[in-house]
Amino acid sequence: MSVLVGPVDAQEKWAEWKSTHSKAYESEEEEQKRFGIFESNLQEIVAHNEKFQAGDETFSKALNRFADLTSDEVPKGGLMSRKH
């Protein structure tokens, strides 16, 4: 698996990510809001992974199905939460 590092085209990654996770939004306003959150999360991932490649972090990060959510919106338990 390749580690996501910069420079990264956020619009291109957004389109790929939405396709991979079958994401669609009810309005353009919601899509723009979600893109802003995604872009912020993407920038944080890239910055972290650059530190990882420099040996300053012990793990890498990647985009997942929660990349359009704020930390407050991610379900409790994150990836470990069950679907009901």
TrEMBL record:
Highest rank taxon of the organism: Eukaryota
SMART domains, A to Z: Inhibitor_I29 (SM00848)
Organism lineage string: Eukaryota, Metazoa, Ecdysozoa, Arthropoda, Hexapoda
One Pfam family matching this protein: Inhibitor_I29
Name recorded for this polypeptide: Cathepsin propeptide inhibitor domain-containing protein
UniProt domain Cathepsin propeptide inhibitor: residue ranges: 14-74
Signal peptide range: none
